[in-house]
Design brief:
single chain; six-stranded mixed sheet
Length: 301
Amino acid sequence: MKTLIAAVLATTALSAPVFAADTISEFRIGILGGENAQDRLNSHECLKNYTEETLGVEAKLFAPADYNGVIQGLLGGTIDMAWLGASGYAKTYLENPEAVEPVLVKINLDGSYGYHSIGFTRKDSGIHSLADMKGKTFGFGDPNSTSGYLIPSIEIPGEINATMDSGDYFGEVKFTGGHEQTIVAVNNGDVNAGVTWADGQGNWEDGYNSGALRKAVDAGLIDMNDLVEIWRSKPIPEGPIVLRKSLPDDVKAKMVALVDGMYEADKECTYNISAGESLGFNPITHDAYLSIIEARKAKSN
């Protein structure tokens, strides 16, 4: 850890304006839903510890029940940093363009920063595609999820020539509460099929290289051999790690350097905070999310 912290301090000492270390008294990290709260807290404990070493103040982790809890925390100034989905960032930006700034994005093993919304069902369900889902129950995750709602709600209607309203094509469309909840609901047969996120790279049996399926496999919740993929979205830009704009510049610079250097310094921590195998995080800007912001805006009209 000391090597990483030394590297962060050396980097920011040259590039950041000088601010007193006590300009903040604590640093608060929000964690989106997707798995149960305790697992989210456990997987981010390493980031919490690194943050305390880097900033010299107490770091706190927050794992609200839904995506909106993190979004409202960022908007209200009670959360300083979070890894948002693209749709969550779009909502935050549309509500207050000055609230946060995107700084880093997760990089896949092939160097890309895209992922997919994956439609899936049980292998023994007799369902092989969306064509077999007529009259059946379809599960979304969270209204503020990009892959768990926004993108499938835009792309799927064009493929089934119907709306996503319950009773139109699908017998019932319901929100499960998050990615892990959708995965468990499909696996248990509580819904016939659902959507979640994955990079779509690597092996299906592993839950792909990264994403909610990989986390569920790692947690022992599912055996991917019991499930099959029935739909895949077009590539979606991976959501950004964001920082509150009003944070002191030196704090922002140190946190960017910390997370940007995590892959080289601690691959296990990188695995934990990036939901599986990745090449860590690289810089990203607002412009990468213009299409998602427009999609979100159109959806709300």
